[in-house]
Design brief:
By secondary structure, the chain is α+β, with helices and mostly antiparallel strands. The chain is built from 22 helices and 22 strands. A hairpin with a 4-residue loop joins strand 8 and strand 9.
Length: about 625
């Protein structure tokens, strides 16, 4: 018996576990992080990158709340790009190639130097219970570690099974022990547990790649960062490379496809729809003449390259054969083969909005255990679970983000309301209010919340307030000044496909026109007062431009948002007896009792619960409140 009683025990040291442990410890909870292999805390199990479309939004939100992923990504990134830069700001996403060795080391250093946080190596095989409340964990050494709350962030380790061709072996990650007992323990306590599958690519020896034959892709010269704070990009920047599969590659894969674990029937778990294996691509898209292969360096300290787009469960010899059929990879050597992995997950509809289990007080789940894929989705859940576990200990109100407040809110609401039968991945299309939920305004939406929680430090909050003051001054400037027709270079306007002016126009009105930016105005005007625009930094100018250009659309979304909030904000009392509510069909009653939604908004997303049923519930809740 371990006599220490922890406030929060975090099980698992992946991206969810790191954010959960750091959040709980920063909120002054005695926190214990347990990992089966301490050396692999914060490891990037798959691709060496952070962010991307919609995922970059999550990283920015984590950063705005006071989390760590964005800060560590900036410090260890070796290439930064904004994806979809030619499209609107709502769907642009920041992405960086990460030095995966540096990332792991920097994140672990933050954990080791965090106050109130202890790291230990141990395998958790069961939870400790007091009636229906979790009060600790049990390790494989039969040690009981007491804790007021427990957060499970087990990733792919629950009953993990790796497939390479017809070969199978238990593992939670390549050649690491799986967790075989904890999943069975959860089932024995009545948890619904499902089975999912994901995969990874082979790792290539850079010395055997002919980069001279390949297209190269550099990062953006302005080095777009994730963090809103004064982080530094410390590492040298590198290029990635692009090549393509071909008819010969596809023929090798088709000839050997029955050797793939995916096509031999060996895998029963459902794979990620939006991250298919190379054999899936060849089989399901037979008319495609080629598929892109994006060659990414894994670290400045390693010769390994990651061929993004080549996830596979084919045998190693077949992997080598099809790789060597690709331009630039004719002599390539494989350092580590790609593989598929099956693992258990907890059906997330069993969780509350706080990520606490509905039927196990004090137990939280975050990350891939909830059916998601991706480092960013995991980190976002870990942060929220860590915050809410700490608030529960303090006996304070839970912290819940709604769909109109953050992509984190969309992510968690989707999981607990709809569940998932395949690895869930965030997309901008999942958000109804994406013009309001942009990357550039994550700090506007969430910094105040992070500061009030005690997660965002005073010095960072002061930086946020300084930025707010600059935005206010620039907004006043563009509202008070005019652009004069005789003071602007019409030739420069024509170069940017901007119609010439025939009358003076207020600056903020001029910005609403297509292709007009503050930078264009600076370059083309001879008005001295407008040249003062150079005083503001580019981030502030881009934010003000975006708010002005999309003002009409933003107002429309805000109007739609109010209708959503009318339903979403109505909480369903736990004492509400669905059997006593007249007018509900048997199907609706059964589904409401099974899902146990916390709000009318969650109830409305359950398949089969009609708008009429929501109206009936609203009336019943009002009657209950009156009583």
């Amino acid at each position: 018996m371990n006599q220490d009683r922890w406030d929060v025990i975090v099980v698992g040291g992946g991206h969810a576990g790191c954010e959960a442990a750091l959040a709980a410890s920063r909120l002054k909870c005695r926190t214990l992080l347990l990992s089966m292999t301490v050396d692999n805390i914060a490891a990037m199990s798959c691709n060496p990158a952070i962010g991307g479309l919609a995922k970059g939004h999550l990283v920015k939100e984590i950063d705005a709340l006071g989390g760590s992923m964005g800060i560590v990504a900036d410090e260890t990134g070796i290439q930064f790009r904004v994806l979809n830069r030619k499209k609107g700001p709502a769907v642009q996403g920041t992405r960086c190639q990460s030095d995966m060795i540096a990332y792991k080391n920097v994140m672990r250093d933050r954990l080791e130097h965090a106050e109130n946080l202890t790291i230990r190596q141990a395998e958790v095989v069961a939870l400790s219970w007091e009636n229906e409340r979790v009060n600790g964990v049990q390790t494989n050494l039969n040690e009981i570690i007491p804790g007021k709350t427990v957060i499970l962030t087990t990733g792919t380790f629950l009953n993990g099974l790796i497939h390479i061709g017809h070969q199978q072996f238990p593992a939670g990650r390549a050649w690491e022990f799986p967790s075989l007992s904890l999943s069975e323990h959860l089932k024995s306590r009545g948890f619904a547990v499902g089975r999912l599958k994901t995969g990874t690519t082979p790792r290539l020896d850079a010395r055997t790649i002919n980069f001279d034959l390949l297209d190269f892709q550099p990062g953006d010269p302005d080095l777009p960062k994730f963090s809103f704070w004064d982080t530094q990009i410390k590492l040298p920047q590198v290029s990635c490379h692009i090549t393509y599969t071909n008819a010969n590659t596809h023929e090798i894969i088709r000839r050997n496809i029955k050797k793939s674990a995916m096509y031999s029937g060996a895998i029963t778990g459902v794979g990620a729809r939006y991250c298919p294996s190379i054999e899936d691509k060849v089989n399901k898209f037979p008319l495609r003449e080629r598929h892109q292969v994006f060659l990414e360096p894994t670290s400045l300290q390693s010769i390994e390259y990651y061929p993004n787009g080549m996830s596979t469960s084919l045998p190693t010899d077949v992997q080598v054969a099809y790789l060597q059929s690709i331009k630039g990879l004719e002599q390539v050597k494989v350092i580590r083969p790609g593989y598929a992995i099956e693992y258990d997950y907890v059906v997330p509809t069993q969780l509350k909005s706080t990520l606490e289990a509905k039927d196990a007080e004090g137990l939280y789940c975050a990350g891939q255990i909830n059916g998601t894929s991706g480092y960013e989705e995991a980190a976002a859940q870990g942060l929220m679970a860590g915050i809410n576990a700490a608030l529960k200990i303090r006996e304070q109100e839970p912290f819940i983000l709604l769909r109109n407040e953050a992509y984190i809110g969309v992510l968690i609401d989707d999981l607990i309301s709809k569940g998932t039968e395949e690895p869930y991945r965030m997309f901008t299309s999942r958000a109804e209010y994406r013009l309001i939920l942009r990357e550039d305004n994550a700090d506007q939406r969430l910094c105040e919340k992070g500061y009030r929680l005690g997660l965002l430090s005073q010095d960072k909050y002061d930086l946020f307030l300084q930025k707010q003051e600059k935005i206010g001054r620039l907004n006043r400037f563009v509202a008070e000044h005019y652009v004069l027709p005789g003071k602007i270079d019409t030739r420069l306007l024509e170069q940017h496909e901007i119609l010439p002016l025939d009358h003076r126009i207020r600056l903020n009105e001029f910005l609403k026109k297509p292709n007009v930016t503050l930078k264009v105005i600076e370059q083309s005007t001879s008005q001295e007062e407008l040249k003062m625009l150079s005083q503001w930094d580019e981030i502030v100018k881009r934010f003000v431009e975006t708010e002005i250009k999309y003002e009409g659309y933003i107002l429309r979304q805000e109007s739609q948002m109010q209708k959503y909030l009318k339903i979403e904000s109505i909480r369903i009392p736990e004492k509400l007896n669905y059997e006593a509510v007249g007018g509900l069909s048997t199907e609706v009653r059964q589904k409401l009792k099974a899902h146990r939604p916390q709000t009318l908004g969650q109830a409305s997303k359950i398949s089969g619960v009609t708008p009429a049923a929501i109206t009936i519930l609203m009336v019943a809740i009002q009657k209950l409140h009156k009583k």
